[in-house]
Every structure is written in C-alpha cells, then in structure tokens.
What does this fold into?
Amino acid sequence: MKVAFLTLGCRVNQYETQVIREALINEGFEEVPFDGGSDLYVLNTCAVTGESERKGRQMLRRALRQKEKNPAAVVCVCGCFAQGAKSDPLFAQADVVTGNTGKGRLAQVLASLCKTPPHLRSRMDLRQDIEKVREYEPMSLCRSHNARAFLKIQDGCNSFCSYCFVPFVRGRVRSRPTMEVVEEAKRLADSGYREIVLTGIETGAYGIDLKNEDGLLSLVESVHGVSGVERIRFGSLKPTLITDEFCARLAALPKVMPHFHLSLQSGSTAVLSAMGRRYGREEEEKAVDTVYRYFPDAGLSADLICGFPGETETDFMESVSLVQRSRLLHTHIFPFSPREGTKAATLSGQIHGEEKKRRAAYLLEVARKSSEDFADRRVGREYRVLAERIRDGFVFGYTDNFIYTKTPAASNLRVGDVFSVTLEKEKNFSVETMTVTAKNTKNG
It folds into this structure.
C-alpha cells in the first residue's frame, strides 16, 4: 500500500511524523507524494497562528479531493489544529482524527484500518483531553528524514504567554526519561547520524516535571557520552535559562555546537510584560553577553514579534537595537497575528496591518545587515560542516556556529559526512548561501 505525508509546523511535528512514517514503512507501506494517488493520507497540522489553521484546512481539503477519486483511501488528520478545532466540519469527512496524543501508536491503527474493507470501516475520533495528559507518550526513531536527526525530549508548555495557543493544544510539560533519550541517540548514531538536535515544545523546560534540578544540562551531558554522536544542538531556549553555570557546563562539552536559538520575542520590557514572558530587556542582554563570554564565536538566532498590541515606535526601536547589540546571525521575524482563544487577541491597542508590515520589513533589513556583518567577520576562518544536501556539484550545510554554506562537492563526499571548509565571500553575497572552499573533504 501507498502512504502520503504532509507536515505543517515545528520540529516536534516533523519528528512525530517521522515516527509514524518509520512505523508504516516497517508495515510495508511505500511513501508517495501527497498530491498523487495514495491508499493513505496523513496530515500533521499546526495551530500556532490563524494562518496555520487556514493552511491545515486547505491541505485537508486537498487530501479529501484525492479520496473522491479513490473512495477506499484513508485520510487521517492529527496534530495541533486537530486538537484545538474540536468541531470543524471538515473533520467529519476524515476517516481518522486525532490530536497530540496517540501518535506513537497511530501507525498500527492506520495500517489495520487500511487492511479493513471500506464497507466495514467506521470513522475514528481518537482525540483526548490534553489538559488531563500528564505523562510523556513513548515514541522513538531509528532513522531521521534529514541529515540532522531531531530527537524529541519533551512535550507541552506551562508558560501560557498571552499570544500563544500552544499550551492549550499541547498540554503541560511532560519530559522524556533520560535513558530513553540516550537509547534513541545510540540508535540514531548506529544508523549513521552524527548530529542530534534535541527538540521539544519548550526544550529548556526539560526535567521540571521529573524534579530533575539539572534538567536539560544533565540530559545533554548524558547524550554527549554517546559514541558516534559528534554534534549536539538544541531547540529554542528562553533567556532566563542562560546562566553562567549553564554555559560553563556546556562549554566543557566539545560536541555541543556554538549556536543557540533564543526566544526573545521583543526588545522592549513593556511589551515583554504584556506578552507574559516573565523577563525583560536586562535579562535578554545578560543572556546574550553570557553566551558570548563562554562561546566567543557563537552564532545566535532569535524569534521576534513586531506590532504586538500596544507596541509604540519606541518599543519597536528597542527590538531593532536588540538585534544590533546581539549581533544576531539569524532572526525569525513575525508580524503579530491575533490568535483566537488567546488573551493578546482581545488586548486594546491592536496595530494596523500596514504598520505591522512596515515594521517587519524594517526589522528584516536590520537583521539582514546583522547577518552579513556576522559572516563578514568570519571570512577566512576554517569550520566544520555537516553535508546536508548535494546538488548540481555543490554541497550545502551548516558550520558549527550555523552559517549556511555552499561548497564545491568532492567526489568522495556524501550526505551526512562532516568536513572542513574555509569561508569565502561571493560577489553576490547572501548569508543563506555563503560560498566556501573545502579545505578537507575526508570523512570524520
């Protein structure tokens, strides 16, 4: 039988889709494109914004149109949109609806349903009340869909920021037992994956439900001991997690890459307070300075929202100055989008769409200049790169500190290899495709 997947949203969704994919392939399914004919369609959805839900509905309609051509096909929708939109009429046309529980067992359910004659099937709604879920759901991988292997370490979020719907569809923090994480890291390393990305809905909250005082630090030290793992990265981290002890212990681990993604969201203390972020500009600056003190060559990336309700021009310029002061390599910029069901959607001082676009465009240009300056200062330096994609005689991948590179590919180079490069700047420079010259393309 054939199966088609489509995943919207974050790395956690990508990981969970891969769990389902791996299990179905082990059941004998063959993966095919989502837009073609298939016996099974699996759509893993996102609900972080209203636009994410709109995209989810669009993709579900696409799968249902394919089902019209092949009524025996099974359509499954899961994930955050399915978890949060309890009464969406489109769900009544899907064969299986589940949210953010049961994904570890979903492949078995779907394989059995596909083998059942259509006239004997019954529609299945497997959603549970996410607020009552307190245990981490077991799921694991042997292989990744990428050259870098994502490894999910926790689920859920306790923060309930005023703009965010995620805690309502992912539930409270549930951490994965350390030994399960280590065992999966071993399996991935045995399968040839040399870079592991520890990810979760709130990565830095790992361990708080396990009463593990060291939390993420202790877990990283355990994964660091896995033979075959050469590079370790993280999902997004809050500035309050970045302390001297945190950075000192990470700096003592050679496999930890000097790249950190900080969930900053704004450079204005007033806006951060309205967002419910529980830190201010002072804590952001302290976190950035602490990272650079222990990792002088670190690449920093960050999320920033512009046009939050009540954000003044002065507040906005504080975000601009934060990008400049922090010397960010990558900045993910989001114009504020009111999300129904969140406190921020009802706040006064909503900003006009055109003004949000103006601010986003201005901040994007500041971020582009920061990226270029970061890369400029590193021209001529040697770095190690993981080969993630090879195309048209070039290999693409990221340096230790997360500069995206394009290198002439040596004949012996393969996706998944780690090799050395020296950075060079092109005439038509873009930080996303900085040209580099290979110094050593030998494996290892």
User: Anything to note?
Assistant: Confidence is low (pLDDT under 50) at residues 440-444.
